[in-house]
Amino acid sequence: MSLIIPLLIGxxxxxxxxxxxxxxxxxxxxxxxxxxxYFYVFLSxxxxxxGYWSRAYRWKYALQHLGYQxxxxxxxxxxxxxxxxxxxxPRSGEISRAALLKKYENxxxxxxxxxxxxxxxxxxxxxxxxxxxxFISQYDKIxxxxxxxxxxxxxxxxxxxxxxxxFVLFILVWIYAEWKIILKLKQKLAGLIEGMQSILKMKDxxxxxxxxxFIWFSYLIMFYxxxxxxxxxxxxxxxxxxxxxxxxxxxxxxxxxxxxxxxLAIAMIFSLYGISNNISxxxxxxxxxxxxxxxxxLGLLSYLLLPVLNxx
Length: 312
Hints:
The chain is globular and about 55 Å long. α3 crosses α14 (about 275-310) and α12 (about 240-255) runs antiparallel to α13 (about 260-270). About 80% of the residues lie in helices and about 0% in strands. By secondary structure, it is mainly alpha-helical.
C-alpha cells in the first residue's frame, strides 16, 4: 500500500505533462514512437541494467567497510525501489533505500544513509567532470545560447566560484571549529559521518571508484544507443550526445525523475545543433518513457520480492 499513492501521483503527473502538449506535438511524438526501431530501445534498457547492478555492487563495498555483510539481492532491490520512489519526490528514494536496508539487513539508518550521501558526492564530482569536458568542447555553442537567453556567462562563473568558496568555508568550520553547536551536531550525526567517511578509509576504494565511473559510463552508453532508434537522430555526433546527456541528467536531478522536464531539456540543447524541436521532444519522450517504465517495473517487482525473499 505504501507505494500505491506515490505511484498514482507519478502517473497523474505524467498524464498532466502530456495534456500540456499541443495536438500537433502529440501527433509528431506518436509518429516517432510508431516508426522507432525498438531494438535499440531495448538495447538501451539492457545497458541500464548494468547501471543498477553496478550501483548496488558499489554500495556493498562501503557497507562491508562498516562491518555489515549484506545480501547482494537486498542491496540491488533496495536500489531499484529507491529509483521508483524518486519519481514522486526528488531524492526521497535515498531515504527509502536506507530505511529498507535497516528493515531487511539491520544496518543502522544513519550509517546506511551516510554511505548514500557519500555516493551522491562522488556521483556529483563525476558528473561535474562530464560538464567540464562538455562545456569546454562546446564553449561557442553554449556561449551563443546563453547570449540568446540574456544570461551572462561571466555571472555563472562568479556564482560558481562563490558557491565553491562557501562550501569550502563550511568544511573548514565543520572540521576545525569547536563551537558548542558544531560539537553537538557532530555527536548527533556520528553515524552519518562514519558512513560518509567510509569511502576514504575502505581498502577496496579503487574498486569503488571503478564502479562509480562504470555507472556513469553505462548511463552515457544507454543514452547514446537510443539515438539509433530514430532515423533523424541516428547521425548526430558523439559530442552532441554528451551535451544531451548532460542536460537530460540535470533535468532528472532537479525534478522528480525528469517528469516533463527531460524532453524539454533535450529539445533545448538539440536545437543548438539544428535538430528540429518535434524530433528532439519525441526523442526525449522516447528515452524517458522507456527508462521510466523500466524503473517502475523493477521498483515494483523489487518491492514485492523483498519480503518474500526475506521471510526469516
